[in-house]
Each structure stands twice: as C-alpha cells, then as structure tokens.
Design a protein that fits this description.
With 204 residues, the chain is of the alpha+beta class. The chain contains three helices and 13 strands, in the order E-E-E-E-E-E-E-E-E-E-E-H-E-H-E-H. It has helices spanning 136-158, 172-178, 190-199, and strands at 5-6, 14-17, 26-27, 34-35, 45-47, 56-59, 62-67, 76-77, 82-83, 112-114, 120-122, 164-166, 185-187. The strands form five sheets. The protein has a four-stranded antiparallel sheet with strand order 1-2-5-8, with no helix packed on it. The radius of gyration is 24 Å and the shape is elongated. The chain starts with a strand and ends in a 5-residue tail after the last helix. The mean pLDDT is 83.
C-alpha cells in the first residue's frame, strides 16, 4: 500500500488511517510534515492540525463533532477527546454540489479484460461504505463473503460449470454476482429452478 492514510476533503482537519500507523511516523501533507504522537489504528482518525477545545472536528468537509479538550497535531481523535454535535432537535441540510459531466473523447475505451471465449468483460467494483464507524466489522464480514462468492463463481466457470443464481432479478447484489459470470441462470425462487430442471432433463 503506497499511502497509509487519507484526507477525505481538503477542508478536513482530521485524516483517516488506511493501515495501522505507529507513533513517530511522519505524515507528509502540505509544506509542513509532522510526526504522529501516538499509534493510530486502521480506520481511525488523527488530527492534521492543532484543534482547540470546542472547535469543530471536520471530516468529509463537514463538522462531525467538536473537541472536548485541546487536540494536538498527530494525536488520535476518538470518543475520548471529541463529542458529537447532535442534540435533541435535529435539523439536516443538504449541500449537494453537482459537477459537470465529463465529455467523452474520440477514442472510446474501457478498462476490461478478454475472456477465454473471445468476449470481453469488466471487473466489477462493489463498495461497502458503512455510515458509522461502529459497523466496520460488519462491512469487513460482507467483504469476505463477496470475495468468496466471486471466487466460487469464477472457479465454477473455469471448471466448465454453469452458474445458477437464486435471487431477485435486477437486484444490485444479484446483478453484481451475475457480472462475474458468463451467461448465468437467474431464478427468483427455488420453485422456478425445480421447474427448469423438470423441463430440461439434460441439466439434472
């Protein structure tokens, strides 16, 4: 991994560790690199600058809470030194920014690969994004399950088997699995699969 941390928005005063970081590691950002003052676990935040008590913690370009005490540059930022700004009365606003649609060039290409039968395919990306940090373990479990399903599908095809999926046609998860396969058979329920086998004895 080239970069071990990320500043999600240029306005953020915290960054997120993409891998475990150790006390004493140098963070190269802007003209003034700094050294971490403590270990930072993967997925956790650390201060990119000194943050005064009651000053907002900025992540995604928005205030996600405020400092309970002074947080020094390079310190771990978590529930021990920050608190949410949410109160009993919640008011939400949307500050959506619409970007210009990129224009296609003269050469139309895509990042794909060629299958053994001469056709082409694309490598699907499934992004698992938890809305809160407390469900990161669940997201990691989903990631492992997806990798298993993808690997099993590809392995079945390489062995000359046809992939059969039982799920709702058009559902994002079903479509994602189907994207890994060549001509998969999709059935919305087991009864349809049983009927298919009765009508196509060569598959049984």
């Amino acid at each position: 991994m080239d970069k071990k941390w990320i500043q999600i928005n240029s306005a953020d005063n915290v960054a997120v560790a993409l891998a475990p970081l150790r006390k004493g590691e140098t963070i190269e950002i802007g003209p003034h690199p700094f050294v971490l003052k403590e270990d930072i676990a993967q997925g956790h935040k650390f201060a990119l600058q000194d943050i005064a008590a009651d000053e907002n913690i900025i992540k995604y370009g928005l205030a996600i809470g405020h400092a309970l005490d002074t947080i020094r540059q390079g310190q771990w930022v978590h529930i021990h030194n920050m608190k949410t700004n949410l109160g009993d009365i919640l008011e939400y606003t949307s500050d959506k920014k619409v970007l210009d649609k990129p224009q296609a060039g003269n050469e139309r290409t895509f990042q794909g690969y060629r299958r053994k039968n001469g056709k082409v395919g694309i490598r699907n990306e499934i992004w698992i994004i938890p809305t809160v940090g407390c469900v990161n373990n669940i997201a990691q479990a989903i990631e492992k399950a997806c990798a298993h399903v993808a690997g099993s599908s590809v392995e079945a095809q390489e062995e000359g088997r046809r992939v059969i999926i039982i799920g709702t046609p058009g559902h994002p998860e079903v479509e994602a699995i189907a994207g890994w396969c060549d001509l998969p058979l999709i059935f919305s329920q087991e009864a349809e699969l049983e009927k298919f086998f009765l009508e196509h004895s060569e598959w049984a």
